[in-house]
Specification:
CATH class: Mainly Beta
CATH topology: Porin
Distance between the termini: 30 Å
Mean pLDDT: 93
Low-confidence stretches: 1-19
Structural class: mainly beta
Number of helices: 1
Strand content: over 45%
Number of strands: 24
CATH architecture: Beta Barrel
Number of domains: 1
CATH superfamily: Porin
Shape: globular
Strand order of the largest sheet: 2-5-6-7-8-9-10-13-14-15-16-20-21-22-23-24
Length: 458
């Protein structure tokens, strides 16, 4: 009976982690594998549709036409996650789906032009996660210490809380992306293959992993002097990376059954955490100076703080959520990556003005050697009725980026609101975001983008 109670407690914590703000969801799509429910399989499915109105960077074309603005609809995420508790110690997890399908791109490999396999159609489904995990020390077996070991394609990538964020319960409309510094270069959609250890010691939660980065092979441009050298992703016969994250949970304890960190609990927990993390990859990038190639380590560090708790009178069910993180990134000299989420723009070869250094569409300098400070905060407004039709949570975010490769630092903001129909399970999110647009290292303007998201998950 003690073992069954322990497993039930672990399951309850995991369900609370997934069901923020909804009292109707229950245990979701859960299938018992034995009579007492101590062995089970859980299925989670979700979809996020984006409708956008965007200002395009100078020098942009969309499907062969010059464009300064764009409106579109796209599939940001369509995912399915399955995990099964085979025994009280052994769990397996798989997570697959698609991302970033638009009217003009995001389709399967080599889909171009017109027809059944035209641009943007039939996106390729792939595995995001696939790992096995064994609980060496279950909670309660060694007083306040627990330990699980696992391996496979995993999300225990350390560095910061939002590096391992759940995509189901963001406070803002999405990740700022800068928290996934290796995205689609030496990782597979923020994952690497390796082994990991996770657990708790009292109020301290720990996560460490040892991974084999995916191969990168960008050829560095040859520079005439070391000051002009630009590091690019080229890790050769990759050396193993090391990652970790430590977090002290002062108030309510969060579930660590799965790696996905909650973005907003909507007042269902009282949380205040302080964390720090790292990611280290030897010889991850290269530069070339007068034909001489040099290798550089990737050394990434962060410190962060997260708070989420009810405020005011209990009957109002108000809550505040806040998160702030500081990153120190070193990828080698002048390293810079420009990214745009669901970018439908391409460069216009006939453009006669000053094009954006980041490229066409909605691309911006996102990741690079230097410092980043990112902060977000939101307020769940009072509950006017016993069973409100909609709960509203306005939010804002601020980003400061200071990269070696650019002579001017940049600031940008996001402002919006979540409209909860049933917690995070059914919500509508609106957000307006600015982004810096550099036409030279010392010349910067700003563009904007409005997004309306429709989200559902079961």
């Amino acid at each position: 009976m003690k073992r069954i109670s322990l497993l039930a407690g672990i399951l309850l914590l995991s369900l609370k982690g997934f069901s923020q703000g909804s009292t109707e969801y229950g245990s979701g799509l859960k299938f018992n594998l034995n009579e007492d429910g101590s062995k089970y399989m859980r299925v989670i499915a979700w979809n996020q549709i984006w409708l956008r109105s965007s200002e395009m960077n100078p020098g942009t074309m969309i499907n062969g036409e010059e464009a300064t603005t764009s409106t579109d609809i796209g599939n940001r995420r369509l995912r399915v996650l399955l995990y099964a508790q085979i025994s009280k110690r052994y769990m397996v997890l798989t997570h697959f789906g698609i991302n970033n399908q638009t009217f003009a791109n995001g389709g399967a490999v080599s889909t171009t032009g017109t027809g059944g396999y035209g641009a943007g159609k039939k996106p390729g489904m792939f595995f995001h996660d696939a790992w096995n995990e064994y609980a060496v020390v279950l909670p309660g077996e060694a007083k306040n210490f627990s330990l699980s070991l696992g391996g496979g394609l995993h999300y225990y990538m350390g560095l910061s809380r939002i590096t391992m964020a759940s995509t189901l319960n963001f406070l803002t409309i999405d990740s700022p992306i800068l928290s996934w510094p290796l995205i689609e270069n030496s990782d597979q959609f923020a994952r690497q293959m390796g082994i990991f250890a996770k657990g708790k010691y009292g109020k301290l939660e720990y996560r460490f992993s040892y991974n084999k980065p995916f191969a990168t092979n960008i050829t560095p441009a040859d520079a005439l002097s070391p000051d002009a050298a630009v590091a690019v992703d080229n890790n050769g016969n990759t050396k193993w990376s090391k990652a970790g994250y430590l977090e002290y949970q002062f108030l309510d304890q969060e579930s660590n059954l799965l790696p996905y960190k909650v973005g907003s609990y909507l007042g269902t927990k009282k949380v205040f955490n302080v964390g720090a993390g790292f990611y280290l990859a030897p010889d991850g990038t290269r530069t070339s100076v007068n034909g001489e190639v040099a290798k550089h380590d990737i050394n990434l560090f962060s410190v962060d703080v997260f708070a989420d708790m009810p405020i005011g009178k209990p009957e109002n069910k108000m809550a505040v959520t806040a998160y702030s993180v500081f990153y120190n990134y070193d990828f080698g000299p002048n390293y810079l990556r420009n990214l745009g989420i669901m970018n439908v723009g391409v460069g216009n070869p006939d453009f006669t003005g000053s094009p954006a250094m980041a490229g066409a569409g909605n691309a911006q300098p996102t990741i690079g050697s230097g410092n980043i400070w990112y902060t977000q905060a939101g307020l769940l407004l009072p509950n006017a009725n016993e069973k409100p039709v909609v709960r509203i949570q306005p939010f804002g975010a601020f980003t400061y980026k200071n990269f070696e490769a650019l002579e001017k630092a940049s600031t940008q903001f996001d402002i919006g609101a979540n409209f909860f129909l049933d917690g995070h399970h059914a919500k509508i999110t609106t957000q307006y975001s600015t982004r810096p647009v550099y036409t030279a290292p010392d010349t910067k303007t700003s563009k904007g983008e409005f997004i309306l998201q429709l989200q559902v998950y079961l």
